[in-house]
């Protein structure tokens, strides 16, 4: 008994108790993060942003309870949290109802082609999406790869999206203008912040999506599956499942541009 007590006290003093490890993980993932302010209305390399899947009429019509804005976030399975001291790669992602910027749902826009921090990201230009989950390091990168017999999204069985600790061709993304008829015209123009865009995985040419009808379980509860799949309507135009808003901070206060009331 005394040995067990000594072991317990030693682990507690070192912060090695499971309860302490989980507490630290949770503290970092839910820590408030300051988003970047867009000075000129565009997103730039080095910006800290949220990726938001905007509320849509079709989500209200088709999926009860699945309406509302959702943000892309680190998904921690309940099993893995009990064995992890910090985040481990590969790691899952999901869409969550939290629209306040915290460790688990904020991403840094990374240059993969030698562009400098502060330069605007342009439509058609490759970029990376990195997150530390609120920790100081390491950084994990949003990635995807072609579906295979062993690699697919658990619920939809479509192309999986995940976080990895290696930058490669699997972690390159690009933004496309929402209206396909104007897409070519806007190619090379700076990508506006806080506006709907399509985000496409460069290697597989499939777009980031939240179908909203597939649930996934995480340590934080029930969340939505995020996949790479281009949903096209009868006019060959992307559906709102593929819409994303790259959210920056509201320069006037501590909120985000999503909280800002529409001008009257």
From TrEMBL:
<dbReference type="Pfam" id="PF24569">
    <property type="entry name" value="CFAP161"/>
</dbReference>
<dbReference type="GO" id="GO:0031514">
    <property type="term" value="C:motile cilium"/>
</dbReference>
<dbReference type="InterPro" id="IPR055325">
    <property type="entry name" value="CF161"/>
</dbReference>
<dbReference type="GO" id="GO:0060271">
    <property type="term" value="P:cilium assembly"/>
</dbReference>
<protein>
    <submittedName>
        <fullName>Uncharacterized protein C15orf26</fullName>
    </submittedName>
</protein>
